[in-house]
């Protein structure tokens, strides 16, 4: 039985209009299915409202526009209802159209025109078009303890673990309803006891660089599948970029939505607190043997050493990562047989544009792209057969979604592959041998 407040009952009765009524109806059904006893207010929602695929575009045109899409696919309503401006602070996550560099991605100009209509609709309805899987990098930054409704798994694990905000990995429907009425079922990672550590990670070597953190995340996801791993205290405090990559990897090979690092992450001042003053349910041993195992899993599709595409920025890159690529290029040019694509939030590309980094990268033969990524947007250069990436998540998805061989290595290995057109993972092998 889902207990509703008086205000929630009035919303369900339609006092605030049909869209709010549909949203409440959806959330109550969802809460009931989950076994949640109540809803919790949220002012921070990241979901998707766009009509980027042919089916959604046809639906939009046949049934009367974006209100019809939102009614059906965000509110699960067969009846088209007028959609009001959203009540929660809301944003669009990653989508599939880069409205600036669409030619590089081989997209049709009509998609760009249609995207403009969607973005105008979103703007009128109060939804920020951040168009990234890393909204926390561009201003959508919850506070510790804040209840959120976010969709993207790599972002949810980041805000749960690093910031101490509270979200489950939601869907298009629940985030759509949460945008309208500012509520989400109180279950999973909203509940304090579900946030406590379950498994203790015992390593022989502390990961040193992003590449190694990606291997650890991927190994934990594959081994645990779910749960809340607790990592030991660190000698070196990791950067946002490292934790972004680690969490994305853990949420890709498994369903991990939260972790603790003792002395680093928000709810782990001590091991005892991270575990909730109880013994761990299990332990995970991690040594160079397990790191090598994760490396082999991630490179299982790699055969050809001639690389057609190098993709960096999964999750979307920070400006620090873009600068690293520029420094690693050292003025060299990308091989004519290879594309170097770097994905970042559109807001950060605007900064890269204004400070000359975009021009510098373009003259080296690289491209700064936003709003999408190869795995989600399902875009690779025409005829590409082999990709290289410094992202465990992208290496996991690209072979499945695009049917191409994919190599996983360090950012340096990827930049070298872009310059030479050949995969030689010298940095990765050196890191594995450490
Ligand atoms: Fe983001 Fe695409 Fe990676 S959505 S996390 S860049 S697979």
Q: Helices and strands in order, then pairings?
A:
Elements: H1 6-12, H2 18-34, E1 39-41, E2 44-47, H3 54-63, H4 66-74, E3 89-92, H5 109-124, E4 127-128, E5 149-150, H6 153-163, H7 172-181, E6 183-185, E7 199-203, H8 210-224, E8 229-231, H9 240-253, E9 260-261, H10 271-274, E10 282-286, H11 288-298, E11 309-312, H12 319-329, E12 339-343, H13 346-354, H14 357-363, E13 366-369, H15 374-377, E14 386-389, H16 392-402, E15 405-408, H17 411-420, H18 426-433
Parallel strand pairs: 2-3, 2-5, 3-4, 7-8, 7-10, 8-9, 11-12, 11-14, 12-13, 14-15
Antiparallel strand pairs: 1-6
Question: What would you note in describing this structure?
Answer:
With 434 residues, the chain is α/β, with parallel strands linked by helices. Helix content is 42%, strand content 12%. It is built from 18 helices and 15 strands. A five-stranded parallel beta sheet has the order 13-12-11-14-15, with helices on both faces. Strands 4-3-2-5 form a four-stranded parallel beta sheet. Strands 9-8-7-10 form a four-stranded parallel beta sheet. Helix 8 runs parallel beside helix 9. The longest helix has 17 residues. It is globular and about 65 Å long. Bound molecules: FE3-S4 cluster. The site of FE3-S4 cluster (F3S) has 14 residues, from helix 15 and helix 16.
């Amino acid at each position: 039985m889902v207990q509703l407040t008086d205000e929630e009952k009035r919303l369900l009765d339609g006092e605030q209009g049909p869209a709010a009524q549909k949203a409440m109806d959806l959330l109550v059904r969802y809460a009931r299915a989950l076994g949640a006893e109540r809803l919790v207010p949220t002012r921070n929602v990241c979901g998707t409202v766009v009509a980027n695929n042919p089916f959604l575009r046809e639906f939009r045109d046949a049934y009367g526009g974006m209100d019809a899409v939102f009614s059906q696919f965000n509110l699960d309503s067969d009846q088209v209802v007028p959609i009001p401006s959203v009540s929660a602070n809301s944003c669009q996550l990653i989508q599939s159209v880069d409205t600036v560099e669409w030619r590089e991605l081989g997209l049709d100009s009509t998609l760009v025109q249609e995207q403009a209509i969607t973005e105008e609709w979103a703007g009128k309805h109060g939804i920020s078009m951040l168009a990234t899987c890393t909204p926390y990098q561009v201003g959508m930054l919850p506070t510790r303890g804040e209840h959120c409704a976010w969709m993207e798994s790599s972002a949810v694990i980041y805000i749960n673990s690093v910031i101490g905000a509270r979200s489950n990995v939601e869907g298009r429907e629940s985030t759509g309803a949460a945008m309208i009425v500012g509520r989400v079922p109180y279950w999973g990672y909203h509940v304090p006891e579900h946030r406590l550590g379950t498994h203790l990670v015992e390593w022989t070597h502390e990961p040193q660089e992003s590449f190694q953190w990606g291997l650890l995340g991927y190994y934990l996801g594959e081994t645990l599948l779910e749960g809340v791993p607790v990592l030991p205290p660190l000698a070196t405090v990791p950067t946002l970029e490292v934790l972004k990559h680690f969490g994305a990897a853990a949420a890709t090979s498994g369903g991990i939505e939260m972790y603790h690092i003792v002395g680093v992450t928000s709810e782990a001042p001590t091991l005892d607190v991270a575990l909730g003053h109880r013994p761990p349910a299990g332990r995970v041993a991690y040594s160079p043997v397990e790191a090598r195992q994760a490396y082999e899993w991630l490179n299982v599709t790699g055969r050809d050493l001639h690389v057609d595409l190098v993709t960096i920025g999964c999750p979307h890159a920070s400006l620090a990562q873009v600068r690293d690529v520029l420094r690693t290029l050292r003025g060299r040019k990308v091989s004519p047989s290879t594309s170097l694509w770097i994905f970042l939030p559109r807001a950060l590309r605007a900064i890269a544009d204004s400070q000359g980094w975009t021009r510098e990268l373009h003259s080296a033969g690289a491209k700064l792209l936003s709003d999408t990524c190869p795995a989600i947007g399902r875009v690779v250069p025409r005829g590409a057969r082999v990709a290289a990436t410094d992202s465990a998540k992208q290496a996991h998805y690209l072979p499945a979604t695009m049917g191409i061989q994919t190599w996983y290595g360090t950012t340096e290995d990827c930049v070298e592959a872009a310059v030479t057109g050949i995969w030689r993972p010298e940095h990765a092998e050196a890191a594995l041998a450490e």
